[in-house]
Amino acid sequence: MRALVSLVAGAILAVALGLPASAAEMTVKGTIACFPYPNEPEKPAADDTSTMACAKKGLPVGIRTADATFRVTGDYTANNNAKLLDFVSRTILASGEVVEKSGQKFMNVKSIKLVLK
User: Fold this and answer.
1) 20, 45, 26, 27: which is closest to 35 by C-alpha?
2) Can you give the residue range of the structural domain that contains 42?
3) d(CA 114, CA 97)
4) Beta bridge partner(s), residue 30
5) What distances in angstroms separate CA 106 from CA 4, 25, 76, 116, one per listed residue?
């Protein structure tokens, strides 16, 4: 019986360590950034024109906030980031599910709206 309990506990621990943290709903304020440098995953495109060109190519995009970067996943990245292009270089509010894996934050964006100044 003791061996069975140990086996089950070990299996549960192995599964838990292999999965990312559970998703949490969040809304963040920031700007869309594109990341064209595969060897420097946190280095965004240099300016608005470069960001737009990068996003149109379907390269990885993120939402940069004052204190974090959230890699965008899900429907908003389909068709070479088509749903994100209207928001490039503009201040936005994005809502979605956030998970952290390998030190990076990922947001499955459900909605985006412009922040009017």
Assistant:
1) 45
2) 22-114
3) 19
4) 92
5) 37, 11, 13, 25
Give the total number of structural domains in the chain: 1
Q: What is the pLDDT of residues 28-68, one digit of tens each?
A: 999 999 988 877 777 888 888 999 999 999 999 999 999 99
Instruction: List alpha helices for the chain, DSSP H.
Output: 2-18, 48-56, 78-81
Q: Per the domain annotation, does 17 fall within a domain?
A: no
pTM here? 0.75
Is residue 65 assigned to a domain? yes
Please indicate whether residue 14 or residue 98 has the higher confidence score (pLDDT).
98
CATH number assigned to the domain comprising residue 71: 2.40.50
Q: Cβ atoms within 10 A of the Cβ of 96, count?
A: 24
